[in-house]
Structures are given as structure tokens and as C-alpha cells.
């Protein structure tokens, strides 16, 4: 039959230890299979595996046992990332008669301001770090300026690398 074990966590010599009582007294020649489910937090910095030291201790004075085995469990962090984006205004149409003013440092002489906002969301289940997002923005079309990249900003402790040609005319 299947039974639930009573296990007690505690710390010994700086290690986290879980002690489970398997049977007392246990009949000679008894075979026991134990399935354990452990919940471990903070695995982001553990690398690609976590190691458990399992030890079977017998209190039998006639044949004491302290059999030990090391079990290595591979760890794979999983996270689903979602990128959301918006353009403000959503649609922009330049008048047919509009022309860019060469050499001007006024924003309105370079076109209509369009702001693109992107949000990168982690939908879990794991946390993430060291994420790199590469965003290609078409700034030229047919050798002419399509979008003049004015500035790049971030929120939430992220850092960005400015693309080449960012605000090249110092508008």
C-alpha cells in the first residue's frame, strides 16, 4: 500500500536537511520505494544542475547502515517572454506639399513626431536576467530618410545601446 511520509526539514552544519521516518520497526528484508517531491527556490544562479546528497541511516544496532548516494538533477529555467508595442499616433500621413528643411534643428522641420513604445513582459514561470532585445527600425527607404531616430529611453533598470545614426543632425 501507499502511505504518506512524515518529513521534517531542519538545518544541520549550514545545510538544509529533510529527515523522513520510513518505518520503525521495519521487518527484515523489507523493500521500500520512496518518491519525493522537493520544491527548491532560487535556482536562477544554480547553473544547469542541482545536487542532492541522499543518505539512508539505520538505527539497527546489529547492522547499522549509513549508505549515501549523490543525485544530480538537471535544471532548466523556462520563461515565456512577450513583446508588446505601440505607435503614437497609430497612423501618420504627411501632407503632399511637405518637404524636409535641410540643416534645420527644429523637430517639426523633420516631420511628424511618432513615438514607438515597446514593453517586454515575462509571463514566467521563471525569472529572467541577461535578456537581450534587438529591435531593427527601418530608418532608410530607397536611400532617403524614412524615420529619423531622435532618442532612445528605457524604464525599469534596463540599459540600451544607441543605434548608429541616432539623432545624427542634433535635432
UniProtKB/TrEMBL annotation:
Annotated Gene Ontology cellular component terms: external side of plasma membrane; integrin complex
Name assigned to this protein: ITA2B protein
Gene Ontology molecular functions: integrin binding
InterPro entries: Integrin_alpha_Ig-like_2, Integrin_alpha_Ig-like_3, Integrin_dom_sf
The organism of origin for this protein: Oceanodroma tethys
Domain Integrin alpha second immunoglobulin-like: 3-75
Gene3D superfamilies reported for this sequence: ntegrin, alpha v. Chain A, domain 3, ntegrin, alpha v. Chain A, domain 4
Alphabetically ordered keywords of this record: Glycoprotein, Integrin, Membrane
Subcellular location: Membrane
Keyword match Oxidoreductase: no
GO biological process: angiogenesis; cell adhesion mediated by integrin; cell-cell adhesion; cell-matrix adhesion; integrin-mediated signaling pathway
Coiled coil: none
The organism's place on the tree of life at top rank: Eukaryota
Domain Integrin alpha third immunoglobulin-like residues, every copy: 82-168
Lipid bilayer topology: Single-pass type I membrane protein
